[in-house]
Amino acid sequence: MKGIVFTTFNEMVEQEIGIDMWESLLESVKPESGGIYTSIEDFPDQELLDMVTELSHKTGTPVTELIEAFGQYLFHALAFKHSIFTDQKPNLVEFLKSIESVIHKEVHKLYQNPNLPSIDWEQPEENTLILHYHSPRKLCRLADGLIRGAADHYKTKIKMSQTACMHDGADRCTFVIEIV
Ligand code: MNH
User: Fold this and answer.
1) Could you report the per-residue pLDDT of 90-119, keeping only the tens digit for each?
2) What phi, psi does 123 have (nearest 5°)?
């Protein structure tokens, strides 16, 4: 996972809880990186998952909830750093349809061989978008948070359900997003 994901997680922990919690996570997890991340370098996914798991132990918040909250926070950090992607798309649906074809495609030019998911979409009705997420990392809880972060950015109310999940054996995770 790229360092930008780790630095954003560090920021979220310090901002939402405090620097002592960040120090205490490093103390408990003792990550190989020592907690020093550069945005474009790669760091082991396990390091992030170990820190989220430790944060769950220390706060009592379930890991899935922490990953979803991190997804929302991460979206705003990514959208801030790469505002061109949201600037170019007039609304949430058009933005979400562009993740694979535009955003993640551009990410390949901005970051050395990123580990990106594949995201397909269907639009059965004007106000309904179906997103299919596939990744060996099975981070559908992060995807859920990123989508909610994007809806927040576009000030668009959504109703979202996940109708299939790789953690239940499906070959991809499916999100049904309704603009309400
Ligand atoms: Mn997106 C990972 C860029 C919006 C889904 N995304 C990443 C990474 C970058 C990135 C960089 C880290 C790649 C790596 O660690 O090697 N993503 C963006 C940018 C935007 C963005 C610049 C918009 C601005 N991404 C979105 C949205 C979704 C999404 C919206 C919602 C489905 N991205 C993901 C997921 C991952 C990811 C999920 C984690 C990797 C994986 O699941 O395999």
Assistant:
1) 999 999 999 999 999 999 999 988 999 999
2) -130, 85
Query: Residue 117: CB within 6 Å of ligand 1?
Result: yes
Could you tell me the two tokens for 92?
């949430």
Whole-model pTM: value is 0.96
Pocket flag, ligand 1, residue 107 (CB < 6 Å): yes
Q: What is the Å distance from ligand 1's center to 146 Cα?
A: 8
